[in-house]
Amino acid sequence: MKLLHSLGFFVVCLGLVSCGETNVPSVSSPTQPIVSAPPPSSKKEIGLIMKTLTNPFFVEMEKGARRAEKELGVVLRVKTAAQETSIEQQIQLVDDLIVAKVSAIVIAPGDSQRLIPALKKATDAGIKIVNIDNRLDAQAVAQAGMKPVPFISVDNEAGAYKAGKFLTDGINTPTEAAMLEGIRSADNAQQRAQGARRAFLENKHVKLVASETANWKIDEAYDVTKSIFTKHPHIKLIFASNDMMAIGAIKYLQETGKTKVKLVGYDALTEALREIKAGNMAATIDQQAAEQGYQGIMLANRMSQGSQVPAVTIIDTRLITLSEAH
Question: What pTM, to 2 d.p., does this model score?
């Protein structure tokens, strides 16, 4: 009897141990199904930092970047500052993308030097960098201990020269000209100023009497144009380094009845094409903003895969006059 009693006790214990190992089978309620947590996204993330979205040029740039995002199947994180002069905000956006651990950053920097320390931090974190639109200062990049950064843009000097030649062609009597410059610490602003100035100098009848910065902005360009004409009321030619400033100048010219001034801009914004059709603007330069955004993301993706990419990619510019302003 003792043997049978002991055997029964052993069987009961074995059953309890077995139940303990399976934690007692549970039955799911039909009204509360068990849902597995979705796996984390394995898609590559690429950051795009632009100067602002208040300028339609960068709206077009984002469209091109989104096209690349769709083709590649990556996740695009688009970041923009409030204004083109908001450099500290752009620096913070670089820091944000470092924290987000993106694979690459494509940046159109508002300043050619001040963004470099933040971008160095990004490269130290293993993030690939592609520079579009406005070129980073190569010497400052080297001094920061960074490798050369691949650059995608247009030949801004050549594009502005093309615009300046269009302004000065056919001028054979003494004529005064003015220029509205972009942010002077930005390489693209410097290149455009040089290109337009070269075209003015080639025509002995043209004298550049004023060259002032309006920092890419409409309202500032209006005020600067007003100031320039107060000092030089006989100006007949204006080169604006972007269409936003051209639009600000047009506003002043229309308000004051100065309809004989020939004005050329840069960017081929929809608003500028409208002004060309209306006869308020003679021409603009198309630098294919969408293509810059597209190529930037494509290049960043290749770099993040370990591929070699060109040091410089130049996109063509086109002079848009009334016959091309659709």
Answer: 0.81
